[in-house]
Amino acid sequence: MALFISVIIAFALDKLFAEPKRGHPLVFFGALVERIEAKFNSKNATRWHGVLAYAVAVLPWVLVGIILQLLLKPYLFLDVLVSGVFLYIAIGWQSLITHAKNIYHPLIEGELTEANAALSLIVSRDTGDLNENEIAKAATESVLENGADAIFAALFWFLILGIPGVILYRCSNTLDAMWGYKTEKYIRFGWCAARVDDLLNYIPARLTALSYALMGNFSGALKCWKEQGRQWKSPNAGPVMAAGAGALNVSLGGAARYHNELQQRMVLGPEETEHTKAGANSINEACRLVNFSLVLWVVILGIALL
């Protein structure tokens, strides 16, 4: 029951206040990570340098979480409240929905320049001159994928390990976002952060994919997940995005440009037709799918705990 109340507190805080605009702990963590990287990621850095940097960046905070949880255990009210606050800090539910709406509204009005600018804040691909379909695809993919990362994986590890679990996940996921690139600078140094993030996301990603299937076109989601999920470049984003595309009956994936280089990605979801072509409404539907999936998780948790 206490765990359930902490979850409700976290999502209520996120609904009311969204992501803190000033003084967010992850901003402090990001600045610390940059200093750690400056010390460990030299020109001759190996995977072991990355392992040590990961340990220095993450493990002390996990230890703080363990100690804090032990200290709070005798004080039920304080434990519930503080746990809820930590989960709130780790999730990005309303932030994700707000970013998506900031793309949807100008796109539906035909303001492609404004929509591209809003899209550039949440994707890593080039967004300078995308058309309506390309913007809608990119935004829909981002909502589906980040639903798993920003919401469901953080919630999963909170439910499994409490405060230390959500600290471990959010710090690892942040490191992957900063170091997990297959570039000359990070291919060795970022290996540990990327592999740990893959491991921590493995079960939550598949639970998210199942949630999308249950809240959308079930048979279509399972079919796309089975046939396309493993072929995507990311072992965890693949099942999530394929199942999400199938659940929404929308065609995603395909060619996209990253750092001025055109990448031919596989198609996710059904084959593109006039009925399955991504548009502004696809973004809205992806947000609804994430929200309905969150309701499903909370209902199941409530039934299980009560």
From TrEMBL:
Set out the biological process GO terms recorded for this chain's protein. cobalamin biosynthetic process
Can you say where in the cell this protein is located?
Cell membrane
Q: Does the keyword Cell division apply?
A: no
Coiled-coil residue windows: none
Q: Which GO terms describe its cellular component?
A: plasma membrane
Q: How does it sit in the membrane?
A: Multi-pass membrane protein
One Pfam family matching this protein? CobD_Cbib
Q: Which InterPro entries match?
A: Cobalamin_biosynth_CobD/CbiB
> Which residue ranges run through the membrane?
48-68, 75-97, 150-169, 286-305
Q: Which pathway does this polypeptide act in?
A: Cofactor biosynthesis; adenosylcobalamin biosynthesis
Q: Does the keyword Transport apply?
A: no
What is the protein's known function?
Answer: Converts cobyric acid to cobinamide by the addition of aminopropanol on the F carboxylic group.
Please state which protein family the record places this protein in.
Belongs to the CobD/CbiB family.
Could you identify this protein by its name?
Answer: Cobalamin biosynthesis protein CobD
Source organism per entry reads Reinekea thalattae
